[in-house]
Every structure is written in structure tokens, then in C-alpha cells.
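Spend some time on this chain, C-alpha cells included, and walk me through the fold:

. . .
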Amino acid sequence: MALGAGLFLGALLTAEAREDPATRGRELYERNCLQCHQSNGAGVPGVFPPLAGRDWSERGIERAIRVVCEGASGPMTVNGVAYDGVMPPVVLGDGAIADVLTHVLNSWGNPGGRVSAREVREVRATTKYPTAERQALAMEYPPLPPAPAGFTLREVARLPQKAVRMASDGKGRELFLLSENGDVRRLDLATGAIRPLFLAKDYLMRREGDLGGPLFVLAMTFDRRGRLLIAANQQNAAAKPAVNTVTIYRTTRRDADGSPADPRPWFEVSYPGRPTYIHAVEHMAIGPDGMLYVGNGARTDGGFSDPEGPFAGGGETPITACLWRLDPEAEKPEIEVYAQGIRNAYGFCWNDRGEMILTENGPDAHAPEELNLIERGRHYGFPYQFSDWTRKAYERTPEPPAGLKFTTPILNLGPDGGFNGSPVATFDPHSCPGGIVFLGDDFPEGYRGTYLVPRFGNLIRTPDDAAGFDVLRVALSRDAAGAYQARVNTLLKPLGRPIDVHLAGRGRVYILEYSRGTHNGASYSPPGRVLELAVAKP
């Protein structure tokens, strides 16, 4: 058993022995449940169901124990009302869960009664975490890696729901966190307090005929007027053939406390959908020219034109696998395709010379992931060429149009990130580079003018063959021919699937962990946290 889990369980047993059960149940509720289910047990309409006035029959109690032990997500109906939220497992011992549920049973007009540790233990044995010890091991936050010299590293907040993107006004007071279902939360960086800003159910459109097609929301940024933009991707399998619709929502006002509010549709476009490889919009940001840049990924793995059921074949479209540029001040913006051949751009940023550097995720074929210098009008290979390969990734890789020239990725000269004795363009296959930031003058020598890139970590290949789960420092320089090349060093490792990085305040980088697993075989379910990497004060 891991030391952390052992200490955790020992502390639980000690606490259970010394506290009155009624007091302990109330305090456990306040620490673990109140944020979502509220002090009166009423929950949050449409998202977190009530604990007051619901079914507390034997079957209802068994269901409640199961949800506490292994979590729950997706649509559910409570007291005839539909809810669609996420609840992570609560890491408590059998006696503690019994006490908190006993508190619930005897509060807010509920029928009363008592839940025993034995009941919890028997139900827990049928869940995916059959003992408290197993649950604690699976849910444990990994220890922080050592901070690099001259920096501090701290945990800012543990998240109630997985998040995929961060945004802020850059002043270092707060972060806005986007979950892939579209919920947006506000994080106070001084206190670590998290509260909902607005919820997906209150602003995301559900069109007639969507038929429950997958909806995922991965891109969020502020424009220069302080409006928050959020990009949602919705598949509609009712269309013939099925389509993917990208909708960018933009806030229209600010609340009394200054928070962005009232997001409404601003831009929308559709193209043929595909069920498996619909990467769609995964990042957007305002460039130095004030324009909005939007990465819209590939609809296929490698450009294949096979139809799948109701989904169209035909490979890529003119507006997929490319980078768009939109005018953020236009009421009905038109897409300018700024660069092409980009399979799946999860992050891009600009340096102090106005150059755009972009991370790109590769195909299921074992091609290296890419780091690219993006220039207007260029083509970066997809689906015809990956990395700097001269061979086809698949037998079915299509032939490129006559005369099309490709811009190859930046070469990694090592020592880390995929370098194995010879340069690679650019990172380990399947290591999943995420967001990217450029470090300016508020960072020390050796970091100033470099980039930080988190790598989510592989989902393909064996658990023992981990790639990613880290943050890399990338220093670029020009070779004799004028092309960029990279020196890559591991800055932080291991991390729990880091997916985004964000600058907020002088000398501070925030790192978003999607979940807690630090290798491919670890638990993927529990939500992660936000970390702060800051220049140490002299």
C-alpha cells in the first residue's frame, strides 16, 4: 500500500474513533458535499440533484452509497427532474460514509434513520473500488514533482470536475476553467475557492434533431474587450449525412462583480461529421494583430474517405485540419483559412517577434507529435505527410495534389521529449502536446524567451511505455539555413495528465491537470487540479 493512502486511512480511523457520529456526519457533509448539494440539500437545478425529499427507501440508500463510492456522471432523473452533472467519488472510509449519509437522512425533512458501516462495506464491495483502501489508492493525488531551481510549485485547487482549458485577464487574480461539457468555473488564485460562473445547460443550444449527438467544448479565450469566447462542437446524426456544427459563444455583458455573463451564439459553421476522429475546434486565441485564430482539427485520422453508417466519406473539407482567422469585431465573421494541413492543434501562442508556434497531435500511426512555426498560406502536411517522414503513414494515405509543398515541423535536438540519439520532429509519438506559453522578461535567464509545453500523456501503447505526463521547456534557435530547431528539457515530471498552461500575473505559470494518473495504466477518471509554477522571490 502507498504511504499516502495508508496515512489517509489511518487518519480516517482515528477521526472516527474520537468524534461524535452526528457531529462527524455534519462536518463531513460540509467538507465534502456542501459545495454541490448546498447547505439545505437542495442541490443545483439541472446539474447536482437534491438530497432533500428524494427516495430514501432501501434501494435509494444503496444507490446513494454506490454513487458516493464510485462517482456518477451523465443524465439522471431525481424526483421527476432531469440532471446532467458530474460527481467524483468521495474518498472516505466505510464508517465516514455511513455517518454522512445518516446526517442526510436526518436533515431537511428526510425520513430519518441510520446507515451502518456494514451496509456501506457490502455495497462498496460490488463497485469498481471494492474497498476503501482501493478507492484511496485510485483517487489519491500524486505528490508534486520538485520545482526547478529558482521556482516554487504549489497546488492551487483540486477540481470538482475535469477541466480542459484555462483563461484569464492576465492580472493574476483569477482563472476561468472550462470543462468539456461546457461548464465554466471561476477560481480565486489567492484562496483556491471555486464557484460556477455559468453552466452548459444555461447557454449551450440543443437543436431539434440533434438526437443526443456528442457535444464537447474544448476552447475558451478572452478578446481584447474582455468578452469570454467559448467554442462548442456538436454532432448531429439526424442530418443526412450527419454534420458537425461549431458554435462560438461570446459573453454580452458583465455581472455586478465584473464577471463575464450571458454567453450567446456569435459564430456558427457546419461540415460533414464523423463519429470517431472529429477533432473540431480545440483552441482559439487573439493574435498580436487583434484577430481571433481558431484551430479546427481533422475529421479523419489520416484523410480516409470511408463512409461510416450515416456519416459522410470524402476525407477532409476546406475548413477542417486547418487554422482559421476571424474578425472578433464582425457581427457575422467570415472564415479566412490562414494555414492548412494541421491535424489537431491543441495549443498555439506567439513569441515577442509575433511568430506563432503551434502544437499538433498526430495520427494513430506512430508518427511523432509536432511543433510547428505557423506562417500564413503554408501547408503543414496532413493528411499526406506526418512529422518529417518521407514514407506514407498508411497504405491508404492519399496522394497530395500536384505541386503542393509542405512545411515540416521543428526538429528536436534533445536531450528530452522524444530525442533518442538523433533529431526527431518533434516529440514522442502519442505524447499529446497540449497548450503552450511563451515566457517573457518576467522570467529568469535560461527561461526568458523559451516555451513551456505540457504533454497529456499517451492513450495508445502499453501502460509501461509512458510518453508525456510532463511539462517541457523548449528553446528555439535558427540553424544555418534559417530553420528553427529546438532544445528540449523536461521541466516537471510526472504530472497527472497536464493538458493546458496559462500565464497570469508576472512570473507565474498555471498548469491544468486533467486527471490524476501519472502513467497510462493509472486511473483516468478522477478530476485533477490547478498548479502554480512561480519565480521564487529573492
Summary: Residues 160 and 397 are 42 Å apart (CA to CA). Residues 3-139 form a domain with the Cytochrome Bc1 Complex; Chain D, domain 2 fold (CATH 1.10.760.10). The two ends are 40 Å apart (CA to CA).
